[in-house]
Amino acid sequence: MRPIENFIEGYRGIKKNCTLFSGVEAKGVSKICKNYSYALTKSKDLSVVVLDVEISFRALEKDKTQDRIDMLLFEKGKKRLIFCEVKEFSNSEIWAEKVENIKVVEQIRRYNAQIEDKQDQIIAAYNNYTKIFKDLFQISLPEPEKICPTVPLIIFGFDRDQLKGRFKDLFKEKIESTIIYYPIGNVSSIKLENLIKQCNL
Predict the structure, then answer these.
(1) Which distant-in-sequence residues (6+ apart) come within 8 Å of 49 by Cβ?
(2) How far is Cα 75 from Cα 146, in angstroms, rounded to an integer?
(3) pLDDT reading at 177 higher than 90
(4) Closest-CA residue to 73 (of 195, 177, 199, 200)
(5) 111-164: per-residue pLDDT in tens?
(6) For residue 79, is it left (φ>0), alpha (ψ between -120 and 50) or beta?
(7) Contacts of 153 (CB under 8 A, 6+ apart)
(8) Which terminus of the chain faces fewer neighbouring Cβ atoms within 10 Å, N or C?
């Protein structure tokens, strides 16, 4: 191993290494970012953009060190931040016979508690964040004023039969009123505007 002395020359290697070590869910998030990056606001009229990924918070519980939320959306018209968790259909954290054993439910509850606990700090931090990136990329981006109190779960990577079978029997019927979720088979075709609308956020 050696440090990269020139970023431009080393960029191809950086991308290759990222591909080697990224999991299926990170690749799913990457596909969403590709279509909804805030950097695209110059070329696309996007009402919702991805503002950040892998957002880390110091854990509120003593037995954990940190909570890491997959993605942060920004609804520009409402100047509102929306955190999202992303899981691929095969992830064991969304499956259990009993709802109290479905790990993602507790995970989402922790994230909701983080938002409630740090709401003002989060808004202030991303106000500064957007100011920096507006200057850096010369883009038009309002500063956030509020934050959605609940974290929706995006589930992707399934076909029609799985949606009607395993998903319905082992997830949907157990979790319907517990957390907010949005199923999308092909994550590349996701419409973030539809996510917000269908989840009643």
Answers:
(1) 36, 37, 38, 40, 41, 73, 74, 76, 141
(2) 10
(3) no
(4) 195
(5) 999 999 999 999 999 999 999 988 888 888 899 999 999 999 999 988 877 777
(6) left
(7) 84, 85, 86, 87, 94, 104, 108, 179, 180, 181, 182
(8) N
Burial class (CB in 10 A: 0-12, 13-18, 19+), 154: buried
d(CA 197, CA 152) in angstroms, rounded, equals: 12
Residue with token string 């018209």: 77
Measuring CA to CA, how many Å separate 135 from each of 34, 63, 71, 96, 132? 21, 40, 23, 47, 5
CA–CA distance, 72 with 151 (Å, rounded to integer):
10
Distance CA 46, CA 60 (A): 34
Q: Which residues contact 142 (CB under 8 A, 6 or more apart)?
A: 76, 79, 130
Residue 180: what are its φ and ψ, rounded to 5°? -90, 130
Residue 119 structure tokens: 């709401």
Strand partners, 53: 71
What 8-state DSSP symbol labels residue 37?
B
| CB 102 within 8 Å of CB 92 | no
Sign of the CA dihedral 193, 29, 71, 3? negative
- Is 133 within 8 Å of 161 (Cβ atoms)? no
Q: What does pTM read for this prediction?
A: 0.85
Spatial separation of the C-alpha atoms in residues 50 and 32, rounded to whole Å: 8
